[in-house]
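Backbones bend. To wit:
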Amino acid sequence: MQLDILTPEQKIYSGEVYGVQLPGVEGSFEILENHAAMVAALGEGKMKILKDKTNTELYTIKGGFVEVLNNKATVLLEGAATA
């Protein structure tokens, strides 16, 4: 699955991943390959990029939105920092 993560200041990540775990406004959720199309609001919390089944990256985010369409997830964030 292609994952692109953007803030107003910079592109944080772009590449192929196994999945991503995100803090939704009503609870955390995970997006994996071939996920159904969706748009969701994100709250403050931890975002985990699952590069493969053993390699991950962790960020603290300030909220935003995620769009999933045609096996591509685009995450638009108000702000993010490595955790």
Notes: Residues 2-82 form a domain with the ATP Synthase; domain 1 fold (CATH 2.60.15.10).
